[in-house]
Amino acid sequence: QQQVKQSPQSLIVQKGGISIINCAYENTAFDYFPWYQQFPGKGPALLIAIRPDVSEKKEGRFTISFNKSAKQFSLHIMDSQPGDSATYFCAASIGGGADGLTFGKGTHLIIQP
Amino acid sequence: DGGITQSPKYLFRKEGQNVTLSCEQNLNHDAMYWYRQDPGQGLRLIYYSQIVNDFQKGDIAEGYSVSREKKESFPLTVTSAQKNPTAFYLCASSMGAGTQYFGPGTRLLVL
Q1: Which long-range contacts (CB under 8 A, 24 or more apart) does B48-55 make?
Q2: Would you tell me which of B29, B38, B78, B103 could form a disulfide with B91, CB atoms 3.0–4.6 Å apart?
């Protein structure tokens, strides 16, 4: 049973464009939704996270949009740059992640110069 | 430098052999986690520990064992019962609820 579904599996965006990655969850008890960025051969690093009491959170070029009624959340990368090329994972958890995170399967993002 | 270290970077396992992956953190975090990453599968939780001398099974604990004798250390043993151990293993830590910080990972290969 996959509790967090992520799409698309891969994405190619032109430099300067907007990259959009979507996730949907099933468990309404989830209360913490982080996004991680991973480069090949490295561990994931936290990009941005949101809790369900807000509908949007922005940090620099990265924005999370959250739709609690639809049980969906998305990552927007504005002015995408070649250095943003990486694999992105959404995740969800109960209790802020103390009992571990449930991850989506990842999106391989390529930003073309 | 504060952070999480994992060793070795690459590990080779023979048939029937148990191997142990090391994870150490100097962030003074209470909670530590082990995840397994397979291509196209995301990360899946193996075990986690919220306090010394206590740990819980995650979603895919079969064939693995852990210990938490010190706050800084959370080693993972891949036993011979794990029939498909080839994967990228990631250790993480956190203060409990909130951001999990990941180590650089150990890639386990079967000979």
Answers
A1: B48/A99, B48/A100, B49/B74, B50/A98, B50/A99, B50/B96
A2: B103
- Inter-chain residue contact A103 with B99, CB threshold 8 Å: no
Q: Write the CA distances from A80 to A50, A85, B19, B50, B99, integer angstroms.
A: 21, 9, 41, 37, 24
| Start-end of H helices in chain A | none
Beta-strand relationship, B19-25 and B31-37: unpaired
Interface of B with A in 86-105 (CB under 8 A): 90, 92, 94, 96-105
User: What confidence tens digit (pLDDT) does each residue in B42-66 have?
Assistant: 999 999 999 999 999 999 999 999 9
Flag whether residue B61 sits within 8 Å of chain A, measured between CB atoms: no
User: DSSP letter string over chain B?
Assistant: ---EEEE-SEEEE-TT--EEEEEEE-S--SEEEEEEE-TTS-EEEEEEEEETTEEEE-TT-TTEEE--SBTTB--EEE-TT-S---EEEEEEEESSSS--EE---EEEEE-
Q: Model confidence at B1, in pLDDT bands (50, 70, 90)?
A: low
The two three-digit tokens of residue A87, written as one number: 């694999």
- The number of angstroms, rounded, from the C-alpha of B26 to the middle of its chain's C-alpha atoms is 16
B37 CB-contact burial (10 Å; exposed 0-12 / middle 13-18 / buried 19+)? buried
Task: Enumerate the β-bridge partners of residue B108.
Answer: B11, B87
